[in-house]
Write a structure and sequence with these properties.
alpha+beta; Arc Repressor Mutant, subunit A; Muramoyl-pentapeptide Carboxypeptidase, domain 2; four-stranded antiparallel β-sheet; two-stranded antiparallel sheet; WH-like_DNA-bd_sf; WH_DNA-bd_sf; ArsR-like_HTH; Helix-turn-helix domain-containing protein
Amino acid sequence: MTTRESPRRRDVLDVLRAAPAPLGVAEAAERMGLHPNTVRFHLDALVADGLVERRAEAPSGPGRPRTVYTVRPGMDRGGLRDYRLLARMLLSRWAAADPDEARAELTETGRAWGRFLVDPLPPDEPAAPERSVAGLLALLDGLGFAPRPEGGEESGGAPQRIRLRHCPFLELAEERSALVCPLHLGLMQGALDRLGAPVTATALEPFAEPDSCVAHLARTPAA
């Protein structure tokens, strides 16, 4: 259970933040009106999450050191995230641009990331279409696209199509397919280029069917 999912745990954090000095379990429990065992449980969880620091404090007189807790310095990491809003804000820059220029720039951005996200094949390994497409499929699977190759039996080698059964940016793609899909196409082109593939992704059909998009592959002119 995360801090965001536990209101009680956030209450413990608030008590520690408001205290002028580190608190022991009994002190925190008294301020919250809870049993010390309950507070200790939440404090241990917050320590495990890296949100709270636990240390031994030397006693002011005879006796054993006292265990105290304080909030770890830094931004509160238990709050809400909204990366979708951030993505929408960034996409709005291209939405206001010329459509052709935006598509070209987004495709090139995707190519750069595709080249960055894959490792090239060993230099002594031939860049066979099947091997390089397998590298692309591994990348797409790791990113959450749930790819499925199709058409390899027709050409006797690399697949002619890749069906993408899941989109990790689905809501954004539904709103801005003209912007998001060029990124995806460029991503595949850049990855294949980095892998030295004799094939490339020539087109991406957004929502070609209700349950998937389809990327089309073809041999490069050099191949």
